[in-house]
Specification:
magnesium, binds magnesium ion, globular, 153 residues, seven-stranded mixed sheet, alpha/beta, Rossmann fold, binds adenosine-5'-diphosphate, cytoplasm, 7 strands
Amino acid sequence: PLRHSLHLADEAATLAFGAAIARQLTPGLVIYLYGNLGVGKTTLSRGILRGLGFDGKVKSPTYALVEVYELSRINLYHFDLYRFNDALEWEEAGFREYFNDTSVCLVEWPEKAAELLPAPDISLYLTPDGDARNAELVAITPGGRTCLNQLLT
Ligand code: ADP
Ligand code: MG
């Protein structure tokens, strides 16, 4: 897999990185966001949504499990599976259908529903670095590699 690491000095850097990712998103991509509580997964998602032109409030989907953004360019589904515990609820809510060729899915805490989730195109790992953060992107599929290559050029 293709990998890339970078330092995110502050929240503004995380938001800017999200906006840079947004420019390279294509329909169908699934991005897993790994990292502990408070590391910046939702902040990065907010940066992506801002980059896609969404001006509204970006809520953490911790309780709803998903927030839906139907944008002009793309439908974006932002999951936070921290409180996920019911495979049946997952099926009944139709979440599987959210993963399709026309949508982009961002998934916080994918490890909580690993057995149900479609595989990612890119896994993104956020870790603390003093008061700042480090990010590592791992592109897994051809679509993920194209996205990451574009991001690096
Ligand atoms: P998570 O979704 O991973 O639980 P949040 O995005 O909700 O985390 O919260 C992240 C916190 O870290 C916010 O207070 C945000 O301002 C801060 N933050 C985000 N990126 C950085 C960064 N690169 N350096 C320092 N603080 C950051
Ligand atoms: Mg979060």
